[in-house]
Every structure is written in structure tokens, then in C-alpha cells.
Design a protein that fits this description.
By secondary structure, this protein is an alpha/beta fold. It has helices at 3-15, 20-29, 36-50, 89-102, 119-132, 147-156, 170-176, 182-195, 212-225, 251-264, 274-279, 283-289, 302-305, 322-331, and strands at residues 53-56, 58-63, 106-111, 137-141, 160-162, 198-201, 204-205, 229-230, 233-234, 271-272, 294-295, 335-337. The chain has 14 helices and twelve strands. β2 (58-63), α4 (89-102) and β3 (106-111) form a beta-alpha-beta unit. Bound molecules: 5'-deoxyadenosine.
Length: 350
């Protein structure tokens, strides 16, 4: 490894900041095989804040209906193949009960942008969860809705909101998200933060056209925005989308980016996402060693799980196989923490 690379890695470890040129230099010059020092710094940083704890989040996919047409996504509106489904409020509450009984203390409701779920329906579901399980953190991942909706869900008791920005490049955003506006998405992230949510942002790794310059910009955007959570994952082209047949995003690049995100935002809650786990059967182990500290097992009822196909062969972990999940995390040298696992900076002024 070159002296310059080592100096930059030490700098980002010490200062939690690098400028765009420096980040781009790292991305241009580092290889996964030689990224040992990067992963060591990321691990030290993670240990300082979270020790060897790994948080588990139960995740239920409440609807695969979506009004958007993101070019990469298997549940895009124009894909006629997926059998569309929606869970009923009672089914969602049953999932939450079973997650609670298994020990989960975070419940993530994820879904396509589906206006079938009105503000009041969602608020009622959130209120019901909080009434039954006041110590369960509720995370929403339901895409762009109005600020009033976000406000209403927060009042109902929601704690966190995941809304990946997908890409910070205006050009790429336009190319991959027909009919959507990047400014609206970034504004939604700001609104969520102002309202008081712990907010998750993040991007897809390996979108055609995304070079290291764009990736450095992605990292700097995260550094500036300071989300409580960051979700990134490699692109997995879905055969029923316009991106069918193109190159898959790199797991190794994703791991390098995870480590850099840990160094730029030491307190961030950083999951190893399903896309990493889909492409690499050692994805968890590698992700944990790169600084990630969250795993999100899926507890969507088995009858619907395969329909939530944002990409093929989705390697989501079955959230009911907790013993296996725990074993695997422990074998990798880490410890499962079933608590709420809030970001320690949350509610402080940052
Ligand atoms: N490959 C990788 N990630 C994808 N997402 C959607 N489709 C794909 C795909 N084909 C990501 C988006 C979205 C998240 C839930 O999944 O970033 O925000």
C-alpha cells in the first residue's frame, strides 16, 4: 500500500473527515485485498462506540405495490410479473407481536410507495403497535410522502425513517428515477430530520455511470447530512427491469464504502444489507469486519415473502431463525444485542 494511501486512512480515522479529492484518491487506489488497514480502523472506530454489539431489526414488507418506476427495481410499477400484495393491518400487528415475542425491539415497516395505505391507516397501525409494545422502536421505510404524513406518523409514535437518497448525482438520479425529483427526495430527508426522526439515507453501489468521483460525492453528502443510519448495497440487476443483463455491483467496493462511512460517521447505525448477503454467503462476516453493526432479518409472512422481489434470489434472512442468526454472528466474533439500539447522537444537536 502506498504511503499516501496509508496517510489518508490514518487521517480519516483521526479526523472523521476527508475532502472529495482525498476520498476519490482512496477509492481509485485501494483494493479489497489490501484494504486491511482500512478495515482495522473501521473496526476500532466501531468498537469505541458500539463495542462488539450487532443490533437486529425485524423487517416486514407490508406492500409490493409501488407507484414509481425506478429502473433497477423489480417491484417498479411497469413490471407486470410480480403478484401484487398488501398486508392487512391485523397481519402487520401479528407480525409485530411475533417479532416482540422473539425479542426484537425494532420493527421496520417497509413497502413500495403505495397510496392504498392512507395517512390515517398507517398512523393507526403505528399507534396500535406503540400501545401494545411501548418499548418497540418503529422504523418506517415507505418512500416519499408529504411532510404532514411524516409529522402524523411521528406523532403516532414512529421513531425512525429509512429513505435512501439512491444517488446524489443529479444526472444519475434523473436517469434512473423517471418522474421523480431529486430535490423532493433530499427535502423529504430534511423534513424527516427536522420532525425528529432518526433518519436513514444511502445509495446503490454500481449504478452504471457512477464512478469514484460520484462515490466520493455520495460519501461527502452523507458526512454533511449526518444521518443516524446509512443503508448501501450493490446493484443486483433484475431481469424484468430495463437494467436486465447489466453488470452486478461489487460487494468488495461496497465493503470498502461501508468502512469509509464508519470512519466518516463513527456513530452511524450501519446495516449489512440484504443485497450484500444475496451476492456473498460470507457477506455478514465481511460486513461486520468492515464496520457494519446492524442486521435486518425479514419477518414477512412466508406466503408473501417471495413476492417482494426488488431483485432475484433475494437472500434475506428469515427473522424467525434467531438461533442460527445469533450463532453466525457469534462465530464471526460479535455479540447480538436485541435492544432498541438507538444512535447515541440521537436527539442531541448535531
Ligand atoms: N439492486 C439493488 N438494490 C436495489 N434496491 C431496489 N432495487 C434494487 C436492485 N435491483 C434498493 C433501493 C431501495 C432499497 C429498498 O433497495 O436502494 O431504496
Amino acid at each position: 500500500m502506498s504511503a499516501k494511501l496509508l496517510i489518508l486512512l490514518e487521517k480519516v480515522y483521526r479526523e472523521n473527515y476527508l475532502n472529495k479529492e482525498e476520498l476519490e484518491y482512496i477509492l481509485d487506489n485501494i483494493t479489497y485485498e489490501r484494504a486491511g488497514p482500512l478495515f482495522a480502523y473501521a473496526t476500532q472506530t466501531r468498537m469505541k462506540i458500539y463495542q462488539d454489539r450487532v443490533f437486529l431489526r425485524s423487517l416486514v414488507e407490508i406492500s409490493n405495490c409501488c407507484k414509481n418506476n425506478c429502473l433497477y427495481c423489480g417491484i417498479r410499477k411497469d413490471n407486470p410479473y410480480p403478484e401484487r400484495y398488501r398486508l392487512l393491518p391485523d397481519q402487520i400487528l401479528d407480525c409485530c407481536l411475533s417479532a416482540y415475542q422473539q425479542g426484537y425491539r425494532t420493527f421496520v415497516l417497509q413497502g413500495g410507495e403505495d397510496n392504498f395505505f392512507t395517512t390515517e391507516m398507517l398512523a393507526a397501525i403505528i399507534r396500535e403497535i406503540k400501545r401494545n409494545f411501548p418499548d418497540m422502536a418503529v422504523t418506517l421505510s415507505l418512500g416519499e410522502r408529504s411532510r404532514e404524513d411524516y409529522q402524523e406518523f411521528f406523532r403516532a409514535g414512529a421513531d425512525r425513517y429509512l429513505l435512501r437518497h439512491e444517488t446524489i448525482s443529479p444526472e444519475l438520479y434523473r436517469r434512473y428515477h423517471p418522474g421523480m425529483e431529486q430535490e423532493k427526495r433530499i427535502q423529504a430527508l430534511r423534513d424527516l430530520k427536522e420532525i425528529g426522526y432518526q433518519v436513514g439515507a444511502g445509495f446503490i453501489v454500481g449504478l452504471p455511470g457512477q464512478d469514484n468521483k460520484v462515490l466520493a460525492e455520495e460519501l461527502l453528502f452523507l458526512k454533511e447530512f449526518k444521518p443516524a443510519m446509512v443503508g448501501i448495497g450493490p446493484l443486483i440487476p433484475h431481469p424484468e427491469t430495463p437494467l436486465a443483463g447489466i453488470k452486478t455491483g461489487s460487494v468488495e467496493k461496497t465493503l470498502i464504502l461501508l468502512a469509509l462511512i464508519r470512519l466518516l460517521l463513527p456513530e452511524v447505525l450501519l446495516p449489512i444489507t440484504t443485497a450484500v448477503n444475496t451476492l456473498d454467503k460470507m457477506g455478514w462476516e465481511k460486513g461486520l469486519k468492515a464496520g457494519a453493526n446492524v442486521i435486518m432479518p425479514v419477518i414477512t409472512p412466508a406466503s408473501h415473502r417471495s413476492k417482494y422481489e426488488i431483485y432475484k434470489n433475494k437472500g434475506s434472512v428469515d427473522g424467525s431463525k434467531l438461533t442460527e442468526i445469533k450463532d453466525r454472528i457469534e462465530r464471526a466474533g460479535f455479540r447480538v444485542d436485541m435492544g432498541r439500539g438507538d444512535n447515541p447522537l440521537w436527539s442531541k444537536e448535531i
